[in-house]
Design goal:
The protein is an alpha+beta fold. Helices cover 18% and strands 37% of the residues. The chain has one domain. It has 4 helices and 12 strands, in the order H-H-E-E-E-E-E-E-H-E-E-H-E-E-E-E. The strands form 2 sheets. An 8-stranded antiparallel beta barrel has the order 1-3-4-5-6-9-10-11. The longest helix is centred in the middle third of the chain and has 13 residues, at 112-124. This is Nuclease. Keywords: Signal.
Length: 181
């Protein structure tokens, strides 16, 4: 009886254990970045998120996203995020973050003046109704056991399917680009 009790007390708790790939802070501490929709053959992602610690439970997310997904135009922004549980980062869409972003075409940053004009246009059009909304990215596993990211946004009740993600080393040769490159 005592052996069973000891085994139960010493066994890792399934309730508190977090799978290594779901542990955002742990992966960031290992120097990893998060690639969304990875294509191993072309070493491309539709988004790469780099998290930098900014205090207890806080990160600065530098994210580069492919817009639109079929062309080689990317937008890089920096946003404050808060770790909520081991596998969820939340923050707020802010016009200021967008206006300080960088647009790239084929990996080359736009000159400051056209970059500012394009970002101002995005802020007045696409992002006008998004400013101030809370967004969260939650890591999980799909039914096949693959790592996925589930995005949610305050005020949006639509069904956004989970997207495959992979933790990668920053020097692994991955870029944000269409997969057909």
């Amino acid at each position: 009886m005592l052996a069973i009790l000891a085994a139960l007390l010493l066994a890792p708790s399934p309730v508190t254990a977090v799978a290594d790939d779901l542990d955002i802070a742990g992966q960031v501490a290992k120097g990893k970045v998060l690639c969304t929709n990875p294509d191993v053959a072309s070493r491309t992602c539709t988004t790469i998120d780099r998290q930098a610690p900014a205090g207890p439970g806080r990160f600065t997310d530098t994210g580069e996203v492919l817009i639109p997904a079929a062309k080689a135009i990317t937008l890089e922004t920096r946003s404050a995020m808060t770790l909520e549980g081991a596998n969820q980062l939340c923050g707020q869409i802010r016009r200021e973050d967008l206006l300080q972003g960088t647009l790239r075409v084929e990996g080359v940053a736009l000159e400051p003046e056209p970059n500012a004009a394009a970002l101002a246009h995005l802020a007045q059009t696409i992002f006008a109704q998004l400013d101030g909304r809370r967004v969260c990215e939650t890591l999980g596993h799909d039914k096949a056991g693959r790592l996925v990211k589930i995005d949610t946004m305050e005020g949006f009740d639509g069904n956004v399917p989970p997207r495959p993600v992979q933790w990668i080393a920053p020097d692994a040769g991955y870029t944000v680009a269409p997969h057909d490159r």
